[in-house]
Write a structure and sequence with these properties.
By secondary structure, the chain is mostly helical. The longest helix is centred in the C-terminal third of the chain and has 28 residues. About 14% of the residues have low confidence.
């Protein structure tokens, strides 16, 4: 038997959830497996989908549980009681955003941010330090925010996100070089 694939996960989402919830469910599921310490991404995601039984709230809780100990959703260790998890302490439900009319679902835990993006954010934020002024500050902050947004686009492969962040960073430096050279001519 071959290991589960991404297509298996997508098929299971399509089988268990209505079409309007599929994208938010996929985004919530993608919170598991983004870090190297979270192994067997597809296998764990399939177990989460099976145990959620089509309930988006339960799926979110299972993802949180898997991030702490993935074995608990696989059944290789005793699962923690989902009902005992405090509702107040957990982050807002990203799947309920669709019900409230919000079209973008943002992750709420900063600790899950990919570490590689911090390099690009730092490089972008060096622009205002290297060249003083409101324009350079705006370019640096916009570049850093753009890199962070790209990093959270978990629908794209990691290497594509890294290349996109590198492009944004280089673009910011190119713009600031053009602005500074234009100011030097004045």
């Amino acid at each position: 038997m071959s290991p589960p694939s991404r297509q298996d996960v997508l098929a299971e989402i399509a089988r268990r959830f209505p079409s309007e919830l599929r994208t938010p469910v996929l985004k919530a599921l993608n919170f598991y497996g983004a870090r190297p310490s979270e192994p067997e991404r597809e296998r764990v995601q399939l177990a989460i989908l099976e145990r959620s039984q089509g309930d988006a709230d339960k799926l979110r809780l299972l993802v949180e549980q898997a991030k702490k100990d993935y074995r608990s959703v696989l059944g290789t260790s005793p699962p923690g009681p989902l009902s005992a998890m405090p509702r107040e302490a957990s982050p807002p439900d990203p799947l309920s955003a669709l019900r409230r009319g919000v079209t973008t679902v943002r992750p709420t835990e900063r600790e899950d941010e990919p570490r590689w993006v911090q390099v690009f954010i730092g490089i972008c934020l060096c622009i205002p330090v290297l060249s003083w002024g409101v324009i350079s500050m705006a370019i640096g902050v916009v570049g850093a925010a753009w890199c962070r947004r790209i990093a959270w686009d978990l629908d794209r492969p990691r290497h594509a996100r890294v290349v996109a962040c590198a492009g944004v960073t280089l673009g910011c430096y190119a713009v600031i070089a053009l602005v500074l050279s234009g100011l030097a001519l004045v």
